[in-house]
Design a protein that fits this description.
This protein folds into 2 domains: 395 residues, Ribokinase (UDP-N-acetylmuramoyl-L-alanine:D-glutamate ligase, 3-Layer(aba) Sandwich), CATH 3.40.1190.20; 321 residues, Divalent-metal-dependent TIM barrel enzymes (TIM Barrel), CATH 3.20.20. The chain is 35% helix and 17% strand. Helix 22 runs antiparallel to helix 23. The strands form 6 sheets. The protein has a 9-stranded mixed beta sheet with strand order 1-6-3-12-13-14-15-16-17, sandwiched between helices. It has an 8-stranded parallel beta sheet with strand order 18-27-26-25-23-21-20-19. Strands 5-4-9-10 form a 4-stranded mixed beta sheet. The chain contains 23 helices and 27 strands. It is elongated, with a radius of gyration of 29 Å.
């Protein structure tokens, strides 16, 4: 790497002149970086559809001074004599961020497309990108007799950055008419040819299964002319290759109105809060009705939807960063919405430099999407990347690698398993013809012993052996401690493996002998501590059962009361919140479980009224505990006996940041204090049951379907098989239903008669 002259005398003069430029409009050039990883493929498997990232944007030589933004005609002294010089520019930052964020950087390609000056700074920038960060620059060029782009950054004590950019070579793009031909060469199928593809060793790694769901992503910013980005986006979509193509436009770099052509040519538009304000002001007519307070999350979301409805073509999404409040992803469709809170609240003392936080966020998001992650998980990865970036000086030098990101996520309870299929990607809209992740209530196998005369004792082994005969079931959920404990773990695990089953979840049942007067709300502090430890023990067992166990379901059936005035509601509520926070947040046990969910039931034999009697109280508990792996499991019959509409309840849980972690399907007579009996799904309320499945299909639920039924006179094996057939049938119906334009229009009109004519 070529060393830069550290004296920097010519920059000293520029720094003093920079102050006068602060109020001027920010102009940024564009640069592009690309990384090519070559491998010898002897005895290795060639990967054809590697995740590829293209970045078209600016590259700058950043000069950072520690001082406050001066007022008009004010001269300020810097806090110290240090002048920090580094690689910068939004395009270069995002190319580096993408390369650093990759799960398998050796098996992926990152291209950067941009313009460099032919000065010493330009040579240093080029070498740094290509050599230090392994970014592919085959489509970038140096412009003769032109200086490199330069960014002057004023950095406050709080790490807040104000910048002035001299575009330099970034402004040297060819005429608009020549751009399509240029980008046709950049994005041609030969660009991701055999020479640029990579090889994967025969021994599969943890993330080896992510290859099949990869995408190609183009990252754009507004530090280059919109005409360049528009041409790049259109050609990128036209060329196509083996992978789906997605374009993300970062709105940073210009406050001018985004052209309609550019807006409609991209898939995801990503502003920060300030940029969203400008976008709203330039997109929605201010008639006195469309005024938004963007400091309010609900208003920010409404504003984003308003922008999409006003200027979109029905295919765009907005990815909005809200700083310390988190981020959200939204389309103009009500059901396509994700809100992700920050992975962690940073101590202000840890914030050093916010210069590239947004670039870090968006590049990490793009990479996660390219690798096949869901929108929610991509936003979590992006949040972690941004949080780490602000803790180091500089732009590109602050960008974290994927190992650091994953460690940060794990430390803060945002665990991942293998890269999942992109089932939740709103813009990919996958077709799901069937659903096949089913489990049935193991205890139902106790019924109709006359059908299995050879079995004399119904222990866990006997129940599992009968369970394994159910056609269409490969998963089983166990009760803790009824079916499995620490002491019986090894034996149960062997039985499950022998029967070709996998444990998908653990249902926690608090022993009546100890907790009949309450678990987390027990008047005894000692008993409450035992409840917390009991849940931790369950999580420990779940972890030992294997990687397939992704969820723990807690039915705190004894946290309730019989008579008015029997409990102090506020005190009991505080005990619930603190108990679940302590248990679920434990880093050694429960924090390692991907999904821990609360299952409410409005009444039970030992507590005629529950402290959490309905969906909305459950969501309030989830919100106050405020841990990313704590959500809700809805039992269909429990929802009915709480006098709720299960479809509405499920919708609310989905819209609360995708907090519906699981479902227990059954049926019941809707009666607050009546026996619900766990009837076969759809046997009492077929229309409501179908509507519930339609909601699951609409929100792309990809979890386990668990049948919590209590057959008495029926063969439990046949009953479970019947439940599976019903759900599969409803799932296929919902596929057609959701695509029925006339039916959807009737629903928007709230016209039941039209719906009745068109539906079931």
């Amino acid at each position: 790497m070529q060393k830069l002259n550290q004296k920097g005398t010519k920059y000293d003069a520029l720094i003093f002149s920079m102050i006068a430029l602060i109020a001027s409009s920010i102009l940024l050039g564009i640069v592009s970086a690309s990384s090519e990883v070559q491998s010898v493929c002897s005895s290795k498997r060639l990967i054809n559809n590697v995740p590829a990232i293209f970045v078209v944007g600016s590259v700058n030589f950043d000069v950072t001074v520690h001082t406050e933004l001066p007022k008009s005609e004010e001269t300020m002294r810097a806090y110290n004599s240090n002048i920090h010089r580094a690689l910068g520019g939004k395009g270069a930052n995002q190319a580096v961020g993408a390369k650093m964020s990759l799960l398998r950087p050796q098996d992926s390609v990152v291209y950067f497309v941009g313009k460099f000056g032919d000065d010493e700074e330009g040579k240093w920038l080029f070498n740094t990108l290509s050599e230090e960060y392994s970014v592919n620059l085959k489509h970038s060029e140096s412009i003769r007799n032109v200086s490199s782009g330069t960014g002057f950054v004023l950095l406050s004590k709080e790490g807040i950055a104000s910048s002035v950019v001299v575009p330099g070579a970034n402004a040297e793009w060819e005429a608009k008419s020549a751009l399509p031909n240029f980008f046709a060469d950049v994005f041609s199928s030969s660009d991701i040819s055999t020479e640029d593809r990579t090889c994967l060793a025969n021994d599969e790694t943890e993330y080896g299964d992510s290859i099949s769901s990869t995408k190609t992503v183009l990252l754009l910013q507004r530090e280059i002319p919109d005409a360049v980005s528009e041409a790049a986006s259109k050609v990128f979509k036209e060329k196509g290759d083996l992978n789906p193509r997605i374009v993300l436009l970062d709105l940073g770099g210009s406050q001018s109105r985004v052209s309609d052509a550019l807006f409609q040519s991209v898939d995801i538009i990503s502003p920060n809060l300030s940029e969203l304000e400008t976008l709203v002001a330039t997109s929605i007519p201010d008639d006195g009705v469309n005024r938004f307070n963007l400091e309010n999350d609900d208003d920010a979301i409404r504003a984003a939807k308003g922008v999409l409805k006003s200027r979109g073509n029905g295919k765009q999404a907005l990815l909005v960063t809200l700083g310390h409040r988190g981020s959200f992803y939204v389309t103009d469709k009500d059901e396509e919405f994700v809100f992700v809170k920050p992975v962690a609240s940073l101590d202000p003392e840890l914030v050093v430099d916010c210069t590239a936080a947004g670039d870090s966020f968006r590049s990490a998001f793009a990479v996660a999407v390219a690798e096949g992650d869901t929108i929610t998980r991509a936003m979590e990865i992006a949040s972690a990347s941004g949080a780490l970036a602000v803790q180091k000086m500089g732009a590109a030098p602050s960008l974290p690698n994927r190992v650091s990101i994953e460690e940060f996520l794990e430390k803060n309870g945002r665990l991942r398993t293998k890269v999942s299929s992109p089932l939740g990607d709103s813009f990919s809209n996958p077709k799901i013809d069937t659903i096949d992740r089913f489990a049935c209530r193991l205890n139902s196998m106790k019924e109709r012993k006359d059908l299995v005369p050879k079995v004399t004792k119904f222990d866990s082994k006997a129940l599992l052996e009968r369970y394994a005969t159910i056609e269409g079931v490969s998963l089983v959920e166990l009760n803790f401690p009824e079916h499995v404990t620490k002491s019986s773990l090894k034996n149960i695990a062997k039985i499950v493996e022998r029967l070709n089953l996998k444990v998908s979840g653990l249902n926690v049942r608090f022993p009546k002998e100890l907790f009949r007067n309450g678990a987390f709300t027990n008047p005894s502090e000692e008993v409450r501590k035992k409840a917390v430890q009991f849940l931790k023990d369950a999580c420990e067992v779940a972890l030992l059962l294997g990687d397939e166990v992704q969820r723990v379901v807690v039915w705190s059936q004894f946290d309730g009361y019989d008579y008015d005035g029997q409990v102090d509601f506020s005190e009991s509520w505080m005990h619930l919140v603190s108990g679940y926070t302590a248990a679920v947040g434990d880093s050694k046990t429960c924090a390692k479980i991907r999904k821990i969910s609360y299952e409410f039931k409005s009444t039970d034999a030992l507590s005629r009224s529950s402290l959490i009697p309905n969906t909305f109280a459950s969501l309030m508990l989830v919100d106050e505990v405020n841990l990313p792996n704590f959500g809700l499991t809805l039992d269909y019959a429990h929802v009915l006996t709480a006098a709720e509409n299960p479809s509405q309840s499920a919708t609310m849980a989905f819209m609360k940041g995708e907090k519906l972690f699981g479902v227990h399907l059954n049926d019941a007579v809707q009666s607050k204090l009546g026996a619900e009996d766990g009837l076969s799904f759809g046997s009492v309320n077929p229309r409501g049951a179908y509507e519930f499945i339609r909601v699951l299909r609409k929100f792309k639920y990809d979890g386990v379907i668990y049948f919590d039924t209590f057959p008495m006179n029926e063969d439990p094996v046949q009953e479970c098989e019947r439940n599976i057939k019903v759900v599969k049938n409803y799932w296929k119906m919902a596929e057609k239903d959701l695509g029925n334009v006339k039916l959807n229009e009737a629903r928007r009109e709230h016209d039941f008669l039209k719906i009745e004519d068109l539906s079931m």
